Amino acid sequence: MMKGITRRWILNTLTTIVVIIIFAVVCLSYFLSTYYYSSVEQTISGRSVELSNLLSDFSSDMDSAFTATARDYVENFPDKESMEITVIGRAGDILVTSTGFTPEEAEAMPDYDSAKQSESGYAKWTGKLSSGEKVTAITRIVKNSQGDAICAVRYVTSMEKIDTLLFAAVLIFSAVGLIIIGLVIFSGTYFVRSIVRPVREVSDTAKKIAHGDFNAQIEKMHDDEIGDLCDSINNMAKELGAAERMKNDFISSVSHELRTPLTAIKGWAETMQSCGIPDKETFDKGMDIIVKESTRLTGIVEELLDFSRMQNDSMRLMLEKTDILAELDEVLYMLRDRAQTEQKHLLYDQPEMILPPVMADKNKIKQVFINIIDNGLKYTPAEGVVGIQVLHEEDIIRIVVTDTGCGIAPDDLPRVKDKFFKANQGVRGSGIGLAIADEIVNLHGGSLDIESGIGVGTTVTISLPVISDN
User: Fold this and answer.
1) What are the backbone angles phi and psi of residue 141, rounded to the nearest 5°?
2) Residues of 414-440 as b/e, b for ≥16 C-beta within 10 angstroms?
3) Dmax of the chain from CA atoms?
4) Cβ–Cβ under 8 Å, residues 390 and 355
5) Is the pLDDT of residue 401 over 90?
6) What is the pTM of this model?
7) Which of helix, strand or coil describes residue 457?
8) List of domains in the chain
């Protein structure tokens, strides 16, 4: 059953072409018929004028010279094989015919009757004789110099050959039209199939992708718009596959991140419960671990909530005048003990000048600082250095965090701010921290730029606009 594009093409394009061809055939047939019939009439009319001029010099059809002249003209008429000439007297009697036979009295001559009644003395008739032959007849009344009718000359020619010629021409036109329609159907069907087949393949592949088969690919057959669509679908499948893998890695990573603090909290809680009231040192150690792991767990949950808000475009900032140095000092105070524990050097080059305030959400900006400096500490080995520098350049404050860690590969650098992406799967983390930090900085009207190289460490620059004096 025809449906879809093929059916629309047949109903619209093919129908229009068929109508145009039929119209063209009808118009050509009408034009050809009119041309031939007009040519016959003009030829006969010219002949009739010739004989009329010859006979108009006589005063009566009873003159013997008149009859001799008419007979001589008719007998020597060059086209009498294709035309029949009849000279009709004023009384309606047949004086001369080119056939030599007097027409049957029952044979109607409507053109002669019309010519007698016409002021111009001229009339034409096309029709069938009693024998069934189709003819064209022209009658012209011959008048003398005084305006009196002398006689009438009637020319009759058969239209059978012309009608046969016209019928053959119509058949040729129709055959050409059918050939054109056939070519249109052939080329159109090929063209429609060249579209329908790839579209069906695209549809089938899209269904596979929708059901989770991200390895499905479409074979590109033509370098055109359909080919571009195939490339887009193939690239989409690859991107979705990569996103699916990153999502699974993210879920696995987050599950591991959540399991670690939960295991520590549960383990120490069970230890303290099974041992009754432990000594103060064990109690303090256990409670310290529980508090730290709970804080870490809270941070992971907050990060997931921020990510959810970012995905839904519902992250909102509580903006207020903020001393950026004060917020940075607080974050460094929180992380300094960790750096010492991990035997890493956390260096801060605090500016001596007083910096102008910025409009910022204090908690969100602190979250950005924690994320960036935490990443620096994670990827920096023992005895490595994480340096923080604050620069004031006109209406921008830049916080530059540099580490001496393993660095980021050039291929991974453009993607480190993408959600779920982790350049180093061997290091803890959910893979959404940089994406959240970048979103927060952008909401503040700033930018987060990363420069890195394998073995040379990483430099992260946070740029925030200061409050204008205006």
Assistant:
1) -80, 125
2) eebbbbbbbbeeeeebbbbbbbbbbbb
3) 165
4) yes
5) yes
6) 0.49
7) strand
8) 4-165 (3.30.450.20), 225-311 (1.10.287.130), 320-465 (3.30.565.10)
